[in-house]
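Re: export button greyed out
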Amino acid sequence: MGKATTIKVANAVAAVPQGATLMIGGFMGVGSPHRLIDELVRQGKSGLTIIANDTARQGFAIGKLIGARLVRRVVTSHIGTNPETQKQMLAGELEVELVPQGTLAERIRAGGYGLGGVLTRTGVGTTVAQGKRTVEIDGNVYLLEMPLRAQFALISARRADHIGNLTYGMTARNFNPLMAMAADVVMAESREIVPVGVIAPDEVMTPAVLVDYLIARERSNG
Amino acid sequence: MDDKTLIAMRVAQELRPGDLVNLGIGLPTLVASMVPREAGIFFQSENGIVGMQATPEEGLEADDLTDAGGNPISALPGSATFDSAMSFGLIRGGHLDVTVLGGLQVDCQGRLANWMIPGSLVPGMGGAMDLVTGARRVIVAMTHTAKGKPKIVEACSLPLTSTRRVDLIVTEMAVIEPTAEGLVLKELAPDAELEAVLRATGTRLVIREPVPRMRFSAAG
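Workaround output, generated via the alternate export path:
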């Protein structure tokens, strides 16, 4: 809690243990924390459980973690754009839990908002319902979907201020603000970092109190 | 006109001014180009925008403005962007007027299978289950057969996307409305014969003669 600590990307990732559970923001790599992902690959953090909307494409965003065989398990809504994910899944090397996209968003929201679960009609009567409890309310049948949390959320902002208030750009917002609520430690990288006050209170999408580490920019002149 | 263009043009006739509409990937995306801008239809992309416009001008793409496939899009005046919980709240909360989705199979009760082929294609359901369960109106836009085999069948051999009955099926041969009484043949394509439609369909159709033809104005 409090304001975010500014930290170098290498030091932030060094705090992630092998086998950690990570939420990673982004949708097909748009709004994904690319510098944090690259550093996970560089430091060879393996045995990871990843919670994310998709596994992007081969060699891009979360696809880099899959390609480097750093992921043991993934909880996601879509892997169709990354043949490598499907290959590792069919070979039994990667465990994949497929979750309807709206249910994934709500399970993460539940994890971050202190809810005990989500009741939804999505998936009732399909393979998604297997092994899950159902609840009938006013004649409608709902699936009970459980909250999701992670040890770390790795998110990406368009703009951050010095204490870690965040805004996101257009469709790059997607899962980022939800994940910022649902992890023990939140690491945010941002396209730009501005002094406090540049982001007006009404514009803040993720308040700084949720952000533990703000990834420092690299000096472009070395 | 090719089959996909005909299907997209016929689906476009189902959209009403002011509708909030979500188009699935593939054939359904063609529908957007069949709708005049002045119709005031809002297209949603589930990655978090209402008011998407298909393709930006070359050189005006924005890294943070894409469709659900990660491809650059543009945004109409009046667009809104939001997070994934709100995006699916629009879908699951009954705020989405129409979704148009592709299909692999539809059964005699109008239930859709369109998200996986066990053993060969396991892309994940993405937003399909939410869309079919939550949209106020579900239109399936698909070819009538695949490799000569009917896609409208007695019982789906593929896993269902939802147990909800879809509202309309549009193919290059026919328009079919699933109802409590069965699959009602509503229209025939301009050059489709009734006998051929019945041969290409793997389950019983309810026929109330005369079955009208699809109609397309000169302007489309």
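The first helix of chain B runs from residue 3 to 12. The button fix ships in the next patch.
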